[in-house]
Amino acid sequence: MLSPKSLAIARVAVTFAGTVIGAGFASGQEISQFFVSYGRVGLWGVVVAAGLFAWLGGALLDLGFRRQVSAYYEAIYQLCGRRLGVFLDVVTVAFLFVALAVMLAGAATVARDYFGVTYVVGLACAGLAVILTVLYGVRGIVTANLIVAPLLVLSIIVIGIYSLTYHNFNIAMLDVPQPVIATPAPHWLLGSLLYVSYNLVVCSTVLLPLGRDISNRQIRLLGGIIGGIILGLLAMLVAIVTLVHGPGLIGQEVPILYIASRQSYWSGMLYALMLLAAIYTTAIAALFGCLAKARSIISLPPAVIALAITIAALLCGQAGFSNLIRFLFPVFGYATFWFIIRLAWFSCRGS
Asked: Which of 76, 96, 126, 254 could form a disulfide with 107 if both were Cys (CB 3.0 to 4.6 A apart)?
């Protein structure tokens, strides 16, 4: 039986991994864009990203406790200064809002296409589930991730291993030409850094208040390291599976769901359900960040603010899933790059 300390570390690691394994990751779209688009060499980008997640995830948790930071914007101002902080604060809350809008629209689309739920009902259910979770604060988000994240991890592993076994995988299958698609950055290393950059800023909405309440530094750091390792192993599996299936898979809106649907009807349906869960974890992190910022400006009950933000997001969420990842995510990665550099500096100085 696990000790209380081991359980606490597992809780932190799962929450960290669950926040990153959102809709973009679980769909395979993020991995395709930021790693597979560079061909086999993009796998080195996965290794770099895993190492940075393991290091800087723990640094975020540490920052939350050592400076008692309760919201992402407080960390931005502390690490980047007032002038640049204002810019990053505005960019971050705008990104979180757009991400929330697209996640809700994506949930409604998946529910309609795979489960026969009307689009409007799907939007309403998704919005209500996200609001109710966020109103429970960090505890609600951690509980949601503890339930959803293990199921997502298991689904990705089962579908990935089944696919590689079916294709009699060997290392030579990775020697494929680089796909002829736009890459998010000129070099695979920069693409990997951008991926880490925007994901850690989104994670900060959850990890900072979580870390603030964890007095044991070993729990904070090991939780970050294990969470980063989990993310790296899963990302590597998704990237290899995508490479094995060749360039034809790159153009799919939801690559892993496409693979699952080709395996069998039931695996497609089950993974569609898991994708809904992944969209849910992304949406709650986005709404939590938006709500934290709005409450620092507006003196209204949290439920009223959360409802208003969600309704506005529902009205704006017509962008398109892959377009968000292809265009907005790299831009946000560039915009928040300095925050990641400052976070690394904070970790090295131990201040």
From this structure: 126
Q: Can you read off the two tokens belonging to residue 237?
A: 């599996």
Q: How many other C-beta atoms are found inside a 10 Å radius of the C-beta of residue 60?
A: 26
d(CA 16, CA 332): 20
The Cα 322–Cα 331 span in angstroms is 14
Residue 265, token pair as written in the block: 């009807």
Type of residue found at 146: L
Share of the chain above pLDDT 90, in %: 33
Domains and their CATH numbers in the chain: 4-175+182-345 (1.10.4160.10)
Pull the structure tokens for residue 119: 């689009």
Query: CA-CA distance, 33 to 45, in Å (whole number)?
Result: 12
Query: How would residue 27 be classed by pLDDT, with cut points 50, 70 and 90?
Result: confident
Closest listed residue to residue 46, CA positions, set 58, 34, 29: 34
| Amino acid (1-letter code) at residue 318 | Q
Of the candidates 147, 156, 106, the residue with the CA atom closest to the CA atom of residue 283: 106
- d(CA 26, CA 32) in angstroms, rounded, equals 11
**DSSP reduced 3-state for 317:** coil
Q: In this predicted structure, what is the pLDDT of residue 177?
A: 63
